[in-house]
């Protein structure tokens, strides 16, 4: 009996191939990296970007782009009405509250209250209801 490790009766003679990891990041995208991968015999997948290396305008690719470009309407979000912002300011001042005090009373940031008073806010029914309850008034509907 042998006291050392037992040896296998048959040896394996298949070749062992070591492969280097493919480059990552910016190196993987460069032409030098692609050419190096081709020389090593690694699989290389290249794909052309959509409308790359062509002089065609976007109107040739998108048939309705001309119609979109000719559209001269300006679209804007509806903001709070002038009546609402004045009523909010007057009700807050009648209660002798600052914008920060009102904001903490309705659990919102003070910037929300200042946007409503400046007329820049997009009307939100939940916030208007919070303002109604905190101030004890009925603010006009946002139009």
Give a concise summary.
The chain is an all-alpha fold.
Would you mind describing this structure in some detail?
- The protein contains seven helices and no strands.
- The protein has helices at 31-40, 58-61, 65-70, 82-94, 99-105, 110-118, 125-135.
- It is mainly alpha-helical and 143 residues long.
- The N and C termini lie far apart (98 Å).
- The radius of gyration is 35 Å and the shape is elongated.
- The mean pLDDT is 80.
Secondary-structure content class: mainly alpha
Proportion of residues in β-strands: under 5%
Roughly what is the average pLDDT, rounded to an integer? 80
Note the run of SSEs as H and E. HHHHHHH
Biggest sheet: strands, sense, closure?
none
Multimeric organization:
single chain
The tally of strands reads 0
Radius of gyration: 35 Å
Terminal Cα span: 98 Å
The coarse overall form would be elongated
Name the poorly predicted regions: none
Helix content: 40-55%
**What is the overall number of helices?**
7
What layout of secondary structure does this protein have?
Elements: H1 31-40, H2 58-61, H3 65-70, H4 82-94, H5 99-105, H6 110-118, H7 125-135
Keywords:
single chain, 143 residues, mainly alpha, 7 helices, 42% helix, 0% strand, elongated
């Amino acid at each position: 009996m042998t006291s050392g490790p037992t040896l296998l009766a048959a040896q394996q003679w298949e070749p062992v191939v070591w492969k280097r990891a493919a480059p990552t990041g910016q190196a993987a995208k460069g032409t030098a990296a692609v050419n190096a991968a081709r020389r090593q015999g690694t699989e290389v997948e290249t794909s052309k970007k959509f409308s790359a290396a062509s002089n065609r305008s976007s109107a040739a690719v998108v048939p309705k782009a001309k119609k979109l470009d000719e559209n001269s309407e300006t679209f804007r979000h509806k903001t709070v009405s002038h009546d609402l912002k004045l009523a909010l300011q007057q009700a807050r001042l009648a209660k002798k509250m600052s914008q920060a005090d009102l904001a903490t009373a309705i659990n919102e940031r003070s910037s929300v209250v200042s946007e409503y008073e400046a007329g820049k806010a997009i009307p939100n029914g939940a916030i208007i209801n919070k303002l109604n309850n905190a101030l004890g008034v009925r603010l006009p509907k946002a139009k």
